[in-house]
Amino acid sequence: MSNVFEFVAESRGQSGKSAARRVRRKGNVPAVIYGGHSEPQMLVLSHNEVIKHLAHEAVYSHVLDINVDGKAEKAILKGVQRHPSRFQILHMDFLRVNMSEAVKVHVPLHFINEQTSIGGKKGGIVTHAMIDVEVSCLPTALPDYIEVDLSGLDIGESVHLSDIVLPAGVEIVALAQGPEHDHPVASMMASKASKDEAAP
What we know:
200 residues, mainly beta, four-stranded mixed β-sheet, 13 strands, elongated
């Protein structure tokens, strides 16, 4: 099996819905790689290999090697179309990257210290408003995930985007758009049990 961050693909000359259906009937996944200084290129990937790769969370926020007919290109995964009812990947989009130019990627958020937080010790329950966040950075600085420390969170309080401690060289895209985009990421709510204990 190839490396989890390498997708081995074949080029396909035809585009369109009928061509994509033919690819799927053969047990493969139609895809496209675009961006950079090259024309978009239609690809064919093995469905089984795609499923194995997508089982790894880091694939969604990692610079990938797209090996097309023996030639490797650096890219990030920009989109995955899944069948609404079957365990099937219908289409994938890859964006070429230049290792010296910043990219925008959605990175998973990992919430830590939820149970041992101030509110958690009082029986509070954390609600998550986001599970990932769009960041901008050089490909070499791209994190697999970003930790959100909830240890100081009390009941009735929220963690916002500006509260997240970011790795060096990484910026949150929304915050660059102004303070009104400093959205909540997680909130500590009182559970029914904690409300009952607080009631006279």
